[in-house]
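User: Can you predict the 3D structure for this chain?
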Amino acid sequence: MYRDEVGNFLLDKRGKVVYIASSNRNLEIYYENVKNLGMENIVKVDDLLEEDDFYRINYKLLDTLDKKEFLILISVEGLLKKYSKEKSILELRLGKNLPMKEIEKILLESGYSKNYMVEKRMEFSIRGDIMDIFPPSGDNPVRLEFFGDEIDRMGYFSLDTQKTVEKSDSLHMYINKNNKNSMDFFQLLYSYKQKYKIFVENIELIKYKMETGILREREREEEIKELFSKVENEGKHLEVIKSETSRSPMKKDFSKEGVKYEKLSQILEGDYIIHEKYGVGIYLGIEKIDNGEYLKIKYADEDKLFVPIEGLNRIERYVCEPGITPSIYNLGTRGFKRRREKLEKEMLEFAKEIIEVQARRKTVMGYAFGKDTIWQEEFEEKFPYRETRDQRTAIHMVKRDMESPKVMDRIVCGDVGYGKTEVAIRATFKSVMDGKQVLIMAPTTVLAQQHYERFKKRFEDYPITMELLSRIKNDREQEEVLKGLKSGSIDVVIGTHRLLSEDVKFNDLGLIVLDEEQKFGVKAKEKLKKIRDRVDILTLTATPIPRTLNLALLGIRDISIIETAPEGRIPVETQFIERDKKVIREKILEEVGREGQIFYIYNVVKNMEEKVEELRGLLPKYISVDYIHGKMSAQRIKKVLDDFEDGEIDILVASTIIENGIDIENANSIFIEGIDKLGLSQVYQLRGRVGRGKVKGYCYIILDEEKSKGKKVKMREESLKELSENGGGGFQLSLEDMKIRGAGEILGEKQHGALEIFGYNLYMKLLQEEIKKVAGEIKVERELRVDLDEEAYIPDDYIEKDEKLIIYRRAMDMDEVKDIKNLEVELRDRFGEVPKSVKNLFRYLRVKILGKEALAEVIEKREDKYFIKFYNESVKFEKLYSMIELGEIKYSKRENGIYLEKRDIEEFLYEYLK
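Assistant: Here is the predicted structure, written as structure tokens:
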């Protein structure tokens, strides 16, 4: 059965239906489908991460299981929870005589807290004749209004607006958190002594998830096994696969540590790859030869190269400018080798430049800020949201840099709305607390104004003087700001590149914050380069330009990545639509219908007024349309933006001036015209202007029929779809953008030739090797030949070929035994029982790592013995003599090596290295 057929399947099943889903994503899809099809009495039991959610669902189940017909959709995580049938119910109806004091007594005895306003579950409030209660059950809190001791009005209200959303004549609520006599889901079901229709989806996947549950909770192993037995035996099994129309891959839960490369480095059959020694070829797949697997690569004149999987680290995916077909040589010629030797000399010079910058960063001392003050702690506690894990890490790293005597040069990269500004606000506060001034620079007047308002609001309770220096100010006002900066009476100044003018002098500048540095002009960048060695600099960006990104990766600048979405953030949905007035009108009316506002991006300034008139003619008169672009006066832009924020304008037609910093919470849809004229990073930034509140955002990319056939537009469309589905974020977008826009700008003209020959991936690898050579950090690695005479590879029926190559790459890059062991545990977890040939592969890799550490030259299996030869100068003679005396090994003078008589090779190496 296809996944999108499950909704109709369930609709046809009348009675008491329980459906066990194999994934939370599927669960969400079915829930939305059956709801849209008009089904009632549906309970969705998913991962229930919050304790409050669990109690709410538990009580909802108790209500539902009493009904004649219902549908319970439950995930594996839901099955693993314990449920309770115990309950304390408060029955209420209009006109009932029930003194407020009596209800208050019941609530306090049940563990409720009394607040002026109800903010969370298990709280109540009394304001005159009004009593608000937020029980552990239900989606919304309850409001009662009394007339004397009689209930005169009651219903549910919204926690966000505090307004009543639904009235009711009677209601009952579960008023406490009962968890006595807990039972599993099936025990709860059958305690009602009813017959159920139970369906179980993809039993193998459920088994795998249950096994993961056992690994997490070892003490519940027998209980979980029993639960799985019930799942397996109680329900009808269904095999559900994704349909052809819903092939969007599930978001992978990548580790948040470090930069994510998997997707970009993945090599697929037919891709151009580059081998360090032989140059560019075409990857044809993996082929099994004897006991192992080899990568098959095609070169000129049908020459074929077979590379053993342990040679994977010599191969990179070839990434270069689109449209360029790389030169492919014959295997026997010196063409590639000659070109490589010439280019390596140029790279060596560039590596020396980089080393000089790194050395200067280490030696140049700046100002070391003091530890956080009590005011800093108090200020941070006033932040109205919960920081995400990545945000906390970025804040910690920035403070650590500031407290160090070394000059800070850190980039904080995070998607639009992920909390970069708060990192800058806290760094700014820290600087001012130490008596140092702060310069905050934005690429546009609009963004500078927005920052000014946001910073001012956060600092309003503290004696911090802050000013804006931009073209909105007249000459006299600007003069006053300049005087204040020179005298030190102004602590923080926010503005555009005007702040880098010669007449701007500071009394004691301690920190510079740059927002979207790549948007600044060449002159501004040159001036910043001169300041970099003297003042702490914090750069904020959602899509770091390639050069910035690479400098961060090479260690010239430091980077913090905020990948965790804020709590409650709903991903923006991207749709590609044809230029059809009827479709555009419908989408606009849909957004206005849900009381939202719209950005309409049209980047042709001279025709913008015509576009506004076109939209006005298309829509009802009650929908207001206005526009802004960069050639308008700053005052006019500010006026229009203020009107848009106040809800006076429904649709704002704008150029890309709004791509940075515009934060209108009620703007939930954006239309983008002319995608072929915009960089992928720009489209991503624009898309981030919507969906910043708690309402789902939509991004509609309008495609011209002719232009949409272009290769560039197609590639951009594919990348955006891929990124919106996988949640790759701005940081990965930068890497993706290099592919499409060309990697030429990465390291300047001098390096362009090398980049074209080697491709982006190999170029970066070789450059980093040159840097290590110049710095004297590179170790000469001795060759070790290992042959254990056993099949060591990953079979196709265990891991599919594309994923297998990623696993091979990861394994070959590992140089510690513990990492190999962890990878084996991961494969067991992800793919099931590890086959013998894969265990052999991991054993081979462990032996190779240990052998290198022991400075062995050869390790071979010969019949039933292992032969080992060491590099002469590294032999531990005493250790070997004692083993010879015990009869564990024999020395061969002719071969200048040893044979293991009674020992396993891995055990021997561990013992030898002790």
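The first helix runs from residue 6 to 12. Residues 136 and 195 are 29 Å apart (CA to CA).
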